[in-house]
Design goal:
globular; 6 strands; 31 helices; single chain; mainly alpha
C-alpha cells in the first residue's frame, strides 16, 4: 500500500487546488466554509447548513463570546482527565512525590524554621525533633494499588498524555471553536516544552490558568500571567535568575541538590553539577520575552536591554513545594535599570518586572509583531502590510484588547478575499482534527477507565522519548500519537519559538505520505480511540457507480470544491484506465483519498 501512497502523493503534489474564481468575490457559502476553517477546525457534516441558517454574522459574534456557548457535553468528557483540574501544589505532590518527601524530612529534622516559613510557606511545629526522619525499610511494601492502576495514578507522564488528549477532544468536539483556535495560537506563542523538568506537570496548570482565561482579554494581562507562570519560569530558566549570591543557605542548597538529582537521575553527581552553589543572572527569559513574546527580533532592542530586563526579573521564581509563583527579595537586583530608554528606579523590588511588562505591552513594536502573527494565523502566511498596520493600530488604541484585535482581522476585506481562501496549509494537528470532524468521527472509550490512564502514560512517555518505538509499531494507534508521527508532538516543540505560523513549512512529499497513511488508518478503523463509518457519508448512493460515490463524498468532505487536476487523479486511482467493466468502490478508500487531497490539506 505504501508504494500506492507514494504514487498518489506525487500526483497530488502536482495537482492544483480549487479556489474561488479569480474574477469573482467569495460566495456566501464559501464565506461560511472559510469561517469554519479559520475560526475553527473545519465543518462537520451539516455545519455549513447550520451556519447558513443562523446567519454568518450571528455565528461569528457568538464565537467571540464563548462564555455564552453551552459546552456541557465536551466538559463531561473531559471529566475523566482529573489532572486537568489539579492545582500546582497537588500536581507536584502527586507526581513529584520526592519534593514532598524532602520537605517532610526537613520538618521532622527541625530545619531552619524561619527560612522554611519565608521560602516555602511551611510552619515547622514547635518541639520538632532535631533528628532526621527515619528511612523506610529497604523491603517495605509499596503503597497504593498494584499493577497498571498504581502506575497510571502516579506517573507524571500521565499529566502530559491527558493534556494532549484533552486538547484534541476540545478542538474536535467543542462548540467554542474560536476559543480553541486561540488557545492553540497563544499556547504556541508562549511555547513550553513538556520534556523539560517540572514543565511535565506544571504545563497543565499553565494551560488552565495562564492561556485559557486570557485569549480574548488584554495582552498585558496574558503577558504578566505568562511571566509568573511556574512552567514558564522553569522552561526559560528564570527560576534560576538571581542577583549574584556566593553562599546560599544550607536548606536552599539541599533543596537544589534534591531537585537536580530528580532531574538527572542517580547516575551523576548533583553536587558536581551545582558546584559551590553560587547563583547569578540568567538572561534566557529576558531575551525571549523581547524576541518571541513581545517586540520581535527586529523590535529595536539591544543586548544591553536583554541584560537589564533579566535584572528586572531577578527573584521571580517558584516555590518548589507548591509549584506556585514566588518572589524572593534577597535574590533580586535592586539597583537602577534602563530598559528601552525607560528608567527603572532603584529599590523597586518585584515592581521592576511589572514595569517591564507595562513597557513591552504598550510598545509599538509589540503591537506590530503580535498583529502580524495573528494575521498569519487567520489570513495568510504573508499578510498584506496595510492589514497589519490597521490591526496594529487597533491593538495600540485598545491597549491590547485581543478580542478587538481578532475582530478587526476576521471582519477585514483581506480575510474574506479570494487570495486568503484555502491559502493556509493545515498543521498535522489541524489536519487530524478536521478529518475527524469532517467525517463525523466519534471518540470511543476503552473497556475500562484504567486503560485510558495507561494510554495517557504511554503517550506522555513516548513524547519524552520513552517507549516511542512501541507506540509507533502498534497496529492501532491513538489519535494523539498519529499527530506525533505526522510531525507535531503536542506541547513538545523543543525551541521557545513554538511551531511555525508560516504554514508552508508543513509541505513536503514525505509529510503528504504520512497524511495519506493517517487518512487510510482513519478509514480502516486503525485509529485506536476514534470510530468513523465511511458508508454513512454516502448513504443512498450505488457503490457500483464510482463517479456518484466520489461526487457525494466530495460534497460532504469538501463542499464540492475540487480542482480538475485533483478530480482526474482521484478518478484514475478509483477506476484504473482501461477498465471498462463496472467497479464497486469502497467508501473508505474514497474518503481516505479525499482527505489526502490538496483541497483538504488546506484551510
Amino acid at each position: 500500500m505504501r508504494w500506492l501512497n507514494i504514487s498518489i502523493a506525487s500526483s497530488f503534489l502536482l495537482a492544483g487546488v480549487a479556489v474561488a474564481d479569480e474574477q469573482q468575490p467569495l460566495s456566501e457559502r464559501q464565506k461560511v466554509v472559510h469561517v469554519l476553517n479559520r475560526l475553527g477546525y473545519g465543518p462537520r457534516p451539516g455545519d455549513v447548513e447550520r451556519v447558513e441558517k443562523m446567519g454568518l454574522e450571528a455565528y461569528v459574534r457568538q464565537q467571540f463570546h464563548p462564555e455564552e456557548i453551552d459546552d456541557t457535553p465536551t466538559e463531561v468528557l473531559l471529566g475523566d482527565y482529573d489532572t486537568l483540574t489539579m492545582g500546582s501544589d497537588k500536581l507536584i505532590k502527586e507526581f513529584y512525590g520526592e519534593v514532598r518527601q524532602f520537605i517532610e524530612r526537613q520538618k521532622a529534622g527541625g530545619g531552619n524554621a524561619e527560612e522554611m516559613k519565608v521560602r516555602y510557606g511551611i510552619e515547622v511545629a514547635k518541639g520538632a525533633t532535631t533528628q532526621p526522619a527515619a528511612k523506610p525499610e529497604a523491603n517495605a511494601p509499596a503503597r497504593g494499588r498494584p499493577g497498571a492502576m498504581a502506575i497510571a495514578d502516579r506517573d507524571s507522564f500521565r499529566v502530559v498524555g491527558e493534556l494532549q488528549e484533552a486538547k484534541i477532544l476540545r478542538a474536535t468536539l467543542s462548540e467554542r471553536q474560536l476559543q480553541e483556535v486561540l488557545v492553540d495560537f497563544w499556547g504556541n506563542h508562549f511555547n513550553i516544552d513538556v520534556k523539560k523538568n517540572l514543565c511535565r506537570v506544571l504545563k497543565a496548570a499553565d494551560d488552565r490558568e495562564v492561556i485559557r482565561p486570557h485569549v480574548l482579554g488584554k495582552f498585558r494581562d496574558l503577558l504578566e500571567a505568562s511571566a509568573k507562570s511556574p512552567a514558564m519560569l522553569v522552561y526559560l530558566d528564570n527560576s534560576q535568575n538571581s542577583v549574584t549570591i556566593d553562599k546560599p543557605g544550607a536548606l536552599e542548597m539541599a533543596a537544589r541538590e534534591m531537585y537536580v538529582k530528580k532531574m538527572i537521575g542517580q547516575g551523576q553527581s548533583a553536587r558536581a553539577l551545582l558546584g559551590d552553589g553560587k547563583q547569578g543572572p540568567n538572561e534566557n527569559y529576558g531575551r525571549e520575552i523581547l524576541e518571541l513574546h513581545t517586540l520581535g527580533v527586529d523590535g529595536g532592542y539591544t543586548q544591553k536591554d536583554v541584560q537589564e530586563v533579566a535584572r528586572c526579573f531577578t527573584g521571580w521564581t517558584l516555590n518548589p513545594i507548591t509549584g506556585k509563583f514566588n518572589y524572593t527579595p534577597r535574590r533580586h537586583d535592586n539597583g537602577e535599570k534602563l530598559v528601552l530608554g525607560h528608567v527603572i528606579p532603584a529599590g523597586g523590588g518585584m515592581k521592576d518586572g511589572e514595569m517591564v511588562i507595562d513597557i513591552l505591552a504598550s510598545h509599538p513594536s509589540t503591537a506590530k509583531f503580535i498583529s502580524r502573527k495573528l494575521c498569519q494565523r487567520f489570513v495568510c502566511d504573508e499578510p498584506p502590510t496595510p492589514l497589519v498596520d490597521r490591526v496594529a493600530k487597533v491593538f495600540a488604541d485598545s491597549q491590547g484588547d485581543l478580542r478587538k484585535v481578532v475582530e478587526a482581522i476576521v471582519t477585514s476585506p483581506e480575510f474574506f478575499s479570494k487570495e486568503a481562501y484555502r491559502a493556509k496549509v493545515k498543521s498535522p494537528f489541524e489536519f487530524a482534527v478536521s478529518a475527524v470532524r469532517a467525517t463525523g468521527g466519534k471518540f470511543v472509550e476503552p473497556p475500562q477507565p484504567v486503560y485510558k490512564k495507561v494510554r495517557c502514560v504511554m503517550e506522555g512517555a513516548g513524547t519524552a522519548g520513552y517507549g516511542a518505538e512501541r507506540l509507533s509499531a502498534a497496529p492501532r494507534k491513538p489519535l494523539d500519537w498519529m499527530i506525533h508521527e505526522m510531525g507535531q508532538p503536542l506541547f513538545a516543540y523543543g525551541a521557545p519559538t513554538g511551531y511555525p505560523e508560516v504554514s508552508s513549512k508543513w509541505v513536503s512529499s514525505g509529510a503528504l505520505i504520512e497524511r495519506l497513511n493517517f487518512a487510510l488508518a482513519l478509514a480502516e478503523q486503525r485509529v485506536q480511540d476514534v470510530e468513523v463509518t465511511p458508508e454513512k457519508l454516502v448513504e443512498g448512493v450505488d457503490a457500483d457507480q464510482p463517479a456518484k460515490v466520489l461526487e457525494r463524498m466530495q460534497e460532504v468532505l469538501l463542499q464540492g470544491e475540487v480542482s480538475a487536476e485533483t478530480k482526474k487523479v482521484l478518478e484514475k486511482t478509483l477506476v484504473p484506465e482501461g477498465d471498462k467493466m463496472g467497479v464497486t468502490v469502497k467508501a473508505g478508500k474514497v474518503m481516505a483519498l479525499l482527505l489526502g487531497s490538496p483541497e483538504f490539506q488546506r484551510r
